[in-house]
């Protein structure tokens, strides 16, 4: 197999060397024109006069001033609902072949996001770009002949009328290229098993049949799968089962909070590569080992805009006010939080995906995910984004020599005022809640000036509760489902937090 690995590695290096360097700004200009040109005869294109926009000398500026922002609810109510009534050519030519079901991290009701054939092709092409980028990583030749464990949602899609429905990871896995099927594990039969626990149990039983070189999936569910494999075979770590495991492609959430607990399941370090695949498209991937930031896919079916993340621009439900200013890639700055806006080949237009990002390298269009518009903890001016909360978790792990793979919190009013009430998921955290709370509060004050100011005013401090990590998994199973794209909400509103606390205490 080493000969095959050398051939594949050589082909990847050759493709990388022959692929011209992408100019992200120019690529984005071409993508916008392609989107407008393709959709100009749709109902949406006619309503917003795409023909006229295409004649403009300042297309990006006029595009932004002509078309309002849409979150899922507004675009679904005003436009996508027409697709469910049998209409075609609504926001994109024809009708979508798939709908990605996504409850995200905010509720039980699934969103139904159109996924067109053009988007399937775009996701596949972005995947090829990511594979090509592996030439930048120092991976041995034999890695390229090993199998890849892709742990997503079920590929057993639901047939409805003239389309199929499922989570985006299941849709993507059901459309993998023919040449990749020999490498893809757990294979089509197991991937179609709907029940998460049954699917993982089947993977555990058959794990030794496969020579896995790479893993791909959301960290929390990947950890559970590896634990199941380790326990079933009475092993000490996953490398006793898959000795050639060398790469983990993470996605969906920041890997940082999971790093310590994930590494505890390994026999030796592996290469971790971050990706950003959402129901709305393949947004970014880590393209080089010098950074853990991800490069936006700027030349492949998605046009990006960025709204400075400022409390004045965000409504209580996380959507944008109408007058919030947007900028294009050529005007972004380093280390500024932006609300990510997308227009895509699936017929999403100026769509608020709900994530906030920051640029770590403008020239390369490299970003990191900093949080969610709905999960920004700004009660009494504390201004804590998810990445700052993740940093606090990493501090606690080091401070108390522990692992905390899961957490959630709420700005909650108690009898004596507002507190940030944290629930930490850990099997190894031995300190009492008051000791942890004191250390956490001290860290947050030293690391975040707005939090320190808030602590001098209406914010009384933090309260900490430690529970088992599987409580979080059970919560997701009870409120959404296990596995796939399901992610834990890091910040909850008070009503949701009441449900959470009742669940924990039950």
Helical content class: 25-40%
Strand content: 15-25%
Q: Could you tell me the mean pLDDT?
A: 85
Tell me, briefly, the overall form: globular
Major sheet: arrangement of strands: 6-3-7-8-9-10-11-15-14-13-12
Number of strands: 18
Give the number of helices: 17
Cα-based radius of gyration, to the nearest Å:
23 Å
Low-confidence segments: 1-18
- Major sheet, described briefly? 11 strands, mixed
How far is the first residue's CA from the last residue's CA? 53 Å
SS-derived structural category: alpha/beta
When the domains are counted, the total is 3
Topology:
Layout: H1 2-18, H2 24-39, H3 43-47, H4 50-54, H5 59-66, H6 72-84, E1 98-102, E2 111-115, H7 117-133, E3 147-151, E4 158-160, E5 163-166, H8 168-173, E6 184-185, H9 188-191, H10 196-206, E7 212-217, H11 219-232, E8 247-251, H12 259-263, E9 271-278, E10 281-285, E11 294-296, E12 302-308, E13 338-344, E14 351-361, E15 366-372, H13 386-399, E16 406-414, E17 417-425, H14 433-447, H15 449-455, E18 459-467, H16 469-479, H17 494-505
Helix pairs in contact: 10-11, 13-14, 14-15
Write up this protein.
- It is a single chain.
- By secondary structure, the protein is of the alpha/beta class.
- The chain folds into 3 domains: 24-118 and 301-358 and 368-372, no CATH class; 139-285, Rossmann fold, CATH 3.40.50; 379-505, GMP Synthetase, Chain A, domain 3.
- It contains 17 helices and 18 strands.
- The protein has helices at residues 2-18, 24-39, 43-47, 50-54, 59-66, 72-84, 117-133, 168-173, 188-191, 196-206, 219-232, 259-263, 386-399, 433-447, 449-455, 469-479, 494-505, and strands at residues 98-102, 111-115, 147-151, 158-160, 163-166, 184-185, 212-217, 247-251, 271-278, 281-285, 294-296, 302-308, 338-344, 351-361, 366-372, 406-414, 417-425, 459-467.
- The strands form 3 sheets. An 11-stranded mixed beta sheet has the order 6-3-7-8-9-10-11-15-14-13-12, sandwiched between helices.
- Residues 1-18 have low confidence and may be disordered.
- Residues 297-362 form the GH3 middle domain.
- This is GH3 auxin-responsive promoter.
- It holds the Pfam family GH3_M.
- One of its GO terms (cellular component) is cytoplasm.
